Amino acid sequence: MRGCQFVVQAIVSWTIVCFAASSLPNPRIVEHPQDGYIAKDEPASLNCRAEGEPKPKITWYRNGRKVETENPFSNRMIFPDGKLFFLSVVHNKKDKTDVGVYYCNATNIHGTAISRNATLSIAVLRSDFRVQPKNITAAIGDSVSFPCRPPRGEPEPRIIWKKDTELIIQDPSHTRFVVTDNGALNISQVRKQDAGIFRCIATNDAGERESAPAVLRVIEKPSFRRFPIDVTTREKKTVEFPCDVVGDKPLQVTWRKEHGNIGHISTLRDHTLRIEDVSRHDSGIYVCVAKNQVGEAEAVARLNVEYKPEFKVRPVDKSVGVGRSVSLQCEVEGNPPPTVYWRKRSQHASAEKSLIFPYKPDGRYSVKPGGTLQIDHVQPADAGEFECEALNTIGTASTSVQLKVRENDSRPPPVIRIVPQNQTLATDETAYLHCDAFGNPQPIVQWYKNGNLLSSDDLRIQQKPSGTLQISGLRVSDTGMYSCKASSETGETTWVSSLVVEVPDGSSVLFHRAQDSKSFPGPPSQPVAIEIKDTSIMLSWQPNSNSGASPVFGYIVEYFSHETTDGWVVVPDTIQKDKYTVTNLKPGTPYIFLVRAQNSHGIGNPSLFSQTITTKRPKAEIAAAIPADEIRTRMSGIVVEIVREKLLTLAPSGSPGSL
């Protein structure tokens, strides 16, 4: 009940006395003064409105002392409604200041009412922006941000922005322009029409300050109106790659070739790339690069130059012993990649060997993926002329080679003196895979990765004259099984090792590099036979006094016979002593042996070859070897007198114990 007062008249009854709101006698403040900031030397006012009957008189106090308003020279006056008005706010060091804590007093004959306190402070806004916005050059569609930190001030200045001469109004329906809490202006999805001059405005009760202008330039990124397209052609032709670019200037258009240099080219006025008299070396990916101040764009096209097959490595005439293995190397290049196949020529069509293709072995014949013909367990009938042929859609190429087969060649195949070791290395390092081979004649060393002949096109990979394979700038893709093959007319010997390449990312990968050969054990002594049987031979040898950089923990035994087709055979057992019995040999067959020592650093050089050691023949086979006619001839005219019982054994003529 507005304007009503409750009067307690008795314990059990109430008397309600109501007055009109405007007719209450006691003074009361209906509008209190508020805290505020005022600008120095500027007009200001403090509100105070009171009601009562009779109408209260308003007086003002600052810091507990009455405010002088009646002096004609005073800068203060009180309006009829009670408002305290300042003609010009004073603030100086002589205690003549209008800053302070104010309250108003409303008084009539019924009493006095005092308002709440209100603090009047001088507003301050310094001149220098702490961070000024800077010029920006942006591309269409980009997002940009103009920073702005206003001058220091009391109260804290508020930031508004304007573009050119118009204020930027924060509209929730248009969110591309956003003023952040720290005063920066963010513009998303920049458009061409957003270009202009932007200013940051700091404002508070002391006034406003305007930042230095910042220019937004909006530029169109380069883009392609016409792209280059892939071209397939043949050598000696002329090709062109168009590159029609649009975008704001200055615009720079250049061409480059991936993984190579651009040679005999010319660029036309419209940025078209022309290559005249193309060769196979021009094949590759060409990139048109367009740049301006705000970005760049690239367009690519592939040039594919076709040419007929050509020989990178021609096979050479070879001579090989019966039972050995031989490789006839034939390496061909061409585009499209040619199909390589082999055939054996003969004067008689019926004796001519059918075509032999890669991945399709034909008995003892097989063609490796690179084009090399491999013949295992060579027979006398393999002698003759072999032809390597290559074919693609552009043309053909062929070359022939002679293979000679020798009977009873007792020379052993090549021996790999220093064998490659297993390694685990980090990317970007250099790997060395050793393969030092010897033999009569001196063998040729070739390297294979995962069964394929290593390409000579990768400049990171080099084979040293010693046979060592060097791979620089290792990549994870270099991981694989690497085979060292030593070949001569006496046959082939292969040793396989693994190379693992890992990225050094701090994990628990245990890297291991092949050690220097000086840390390997020295070669054992020449092995000798201490027991010979028909299918086994017991060998013995002496360790080398030089065990290398760590103790010897085992030996490796290898053996060879020219009467078999096996080449060098490595005994699969782990041999820890200095004697060993080699089993599963053929009776009556000559063998030679060698021994290597092994420590934790690697496998050492081989020993000297043993003397030729021949396994024994079974007794039944020896007796059957003397024909009956020969026995009768030997016994002819011989009189035997039995003096006492004694067993006589016949032996072949010319051997110990023969009659």
UniProtKB/TrEMBL annotation:
Domain spans labelled Ig-like: 27-121, 127-217, 222-306, 309-406, 414-494
Signal peptide region: 1-20
GO molecular function, one term: cell-cell adhesion mediator activity
Subcellular location per the Swiss-Prot or TrEMBL entry: Membrane
Membrane disposition: Single-pass membrane protein
Gene Ontology CC annotation, any one: axon
Main location (coarse class): membrane
InterPro entries: FN3_dom, FN3_sf, Ig-like_dom, Ig-like_dom_sf, Ig-like_fold, Ig_I-set, Ig_sub, Ig_sub2
Keywords assigned by UniProt, alphabetized: Disulfide bond, Immunoglobulin domain, Membrane, Repeat, Signal, Transmembrane, Transmembrane helix
Domain Fibronectin type-III: 523-618
One record GO biological process: homophilic cell adhesion via plasma membrane adhesion molecules
Name of this chain's protein: ROBO2
Species of origin: Mytilus coruscus (Sea mussel)
